[in-house]
User: Which sequence fits this backbone?
């Protein structure tokens, strides 16, 4: 990617950004609350359900799997993901995201009331919960150190891993 990006002019980069921004987004992640999930293995950088019908308790996890592993393998852009989350996550996450529940700041203040981003602040709605929970974890651990990351420090300071799971489930469901 670096070689390709370096060979592009600023005008070409702008044209590419405008082209991609104009493509309507389609739902990509379906959030399903559940007490148990299929056992999974890791393949191709993803969780993939095992062939058998074996299940296990979800615990305090989000398990994100392709809707159709064979189609995702072929990079089918119309075959999305399903994120299994603990029962009650979406509602609990909504309270934290919308009001902060007294423990954090309402996310819309900086990320836009529709959570689709505001200026340089990234959008959160409908994005991969595994990715977003990982970012929240890294920001709390101090290992994500971007130019603007300090603005997230106070947000994550009093949130637990369970809170991150609930927030991830709610954001993905938007
Ligand atoms: C004071 C402003 C502010 C508030 C309030 C805020 N954020 Fe952020 N958030 C930011 C900024 C700025 C970034 C970009 C940080 C960077 O570049 O490293 C960010 C980044 C993120 C990211 C990483 C996104 C990505 O694309 O990698 C996540 C996830 C996130 N915020 C979630 C939340 C959640 C959930 C809340 C509410 C509980 C919240 N934020 C509240 C300013 C804020």
Assistant:
């Amino acid at each position: 990617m670096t070689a390709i990006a370096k060979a592009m002019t600023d005008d070409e980069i702008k044209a590419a950004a405008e082209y991609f921004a104009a493509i309507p987004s389609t739902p990509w992640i379906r959030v399903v609350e559940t007490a148990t999930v299929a056992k999974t293995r890791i393949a191709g950088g993803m969780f993939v359900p095992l062939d058998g019908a074996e299940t296990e308790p979800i615990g305090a996890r989000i398990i994100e799997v392709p809707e159709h592993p064979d189609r995702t393998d072929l990079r089918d852009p119309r075959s999305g993901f399903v994120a299994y989350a603990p029962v009650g996550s979406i509602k609990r996450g909504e309270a934290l995201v919308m009001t902060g529940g007294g423990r954090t700041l309402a996310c819309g203040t900086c990320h836009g009331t529709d959570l689709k981003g505001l200026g340089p602040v990234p959008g959160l709605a409908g994005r991969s919960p595994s990715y977003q929970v990982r970012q929240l974890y890294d920001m709390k651990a101090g290992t994500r150190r971007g130019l603007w990351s300090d603005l997230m420090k106070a947000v994550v300071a009093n949130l637990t891993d369970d809170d991150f799971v609930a927030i991830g489930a709610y954001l993905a469901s938007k």
The chain has a mean pLDDT of 95. The CA atoms of residues 32 and 84 lie 5 Å apart. The pocket of heme C is lined by residues 96-97, 104-105, 107, 109-111, 121-122, 124, 132, 135-136, 144, 146, 148-149, 151-152, 155, 167 (CB under 6 Å). The two ends are 30 Å apart (CA to CA).
